[in-house]
Amino acid sequence: MMITKIETERADLFDVSILISMRVHISGNVSEDAIKDAFQKAVAAHKILATRVCIQDDGTAFYESVGDDASEIKADNNKIFFEASPWMDILKREEKVRFKIEEGEYLKAFCYELSDEGCKILFLMHHLGGDGKSFVYFIESFMKALSGETLEQDEIRTIPAGDISDEALKDRIGPLVLVPKIYNIRWDKETEARTFNYDDMDEAYQNYWADRESVVSEYIIKPETVKKIMKRCREWNVGFTAYVTTAFLRRLGRKLDIGYAVDARGDGNRCMGNQATGISIKYAYNYDKSFKSNVIKVQKRMTKKLEDEESRMFILPFMAAFRPSLVDAINLEHAGTFHSRTSGRLASILGYGKKTKDLSITNLTKLDIADTYGAYKIDFFSFIPPVISYGKNIVGISTIGNNTVMTIHRIKKKQD
Fold first, then answer.
1. Rounded CA gap, 190 and 49, in Å?
2. Angle at the Cα of 339 from the Cα atoms of 337 and 342, rounded to 5 degrees
3. Is this model's pTM higher than 0.90 or not?
4. CA 287 from chain center: how many Å?
5. Which residues have a Cβ under 8 Å from the Cβ of 368 and sit 6 or more positions away?
6. In this predicted model, what pLDDT tens digit does every residue of 10-24 receive, in sequence order?
7. Which of 57, 326, 354, 398 sits in a 20 to 30 Å window from 217, CA-based?
8. Residues 358/395, Cβ–Cβ less than 8 Å
């Protein structure tokens, strides 16, 4: 048996809106049996999909690999289904259904259109199965298996918290080391170090999704438009993400708190597991200046954070320094099923309350996978990030071949 501790990704455990979605159109004559076989081979190629998530009585959690001879984790815990329903209807239905990660369920797929010319598949994954790049690499595995390639098995890769003693944390996050220290003391004193389990998770899902649903807007950006934007980006020495950010700032017309998901793979590995971090900036569009001037300033703020190792990696040891159950509690505060003075205040400070990030952007850029695999080609790819508990408007951007798609994902109450 092998275990991998859940530390820097702990905030994903009790988040009730943590479903990463990707949908692809595949051209080429393929059968239902071939799709099923390729999916199962892709699942078997990633070790994290042969684990389950265990929560101990003391609140610690970990991935547990139990080996081939253990019946508790079955190969079919991650499944593909076939149904002729609109993909958005499937997403709205499935986002309300908690993934049984304690049984090794991280991933589902739905083939919602199948013909002689190809198929359309919606892939859904719990964030504890991996980050956005992990999901892309799973789809790459699926496409390789579909075309008859033999897959090699990868390793589980996450980002360990490292040394989170007070002394070590002070070097890594500076004076803010006092925040988790103080709140841990308050949490232990107020709740006697209360912990949560899967029953609490079920209650949170039922309460949160009783009157909510996803709204997804999807925009296909024409190749000629992308080409024009990229020409400007090169001339202005800015990135596509900064350009898109500035377009949102100009449209919304107020100071925004903007978060960005950032790949933290130092070695460029292609393994599944949560290997992402994040940065944030605050900016208000200056209408007295040109769009070019604004986007250059946005890029400067982003670059300052991205090039500073401490700023780029800050959030991981910072969140890992809180009691695991306190991190769970702020998610349950957001879901409306738990409240304490300590977790309520911390949830507000960290953006899990009413004041969340205004905008969160994940740009997967040009996907580092092929679009063609033997007789099959991905001719459409759309990435829909989850509306995490501290987010409001979540933007996903991805490009494969000449196909660039931007999605905006938010959660609304049904009476809205």
1. 37
2. 150
3. yes
4. 33
5. 136
6. 999 999 999 999 999
7. 354
8. no
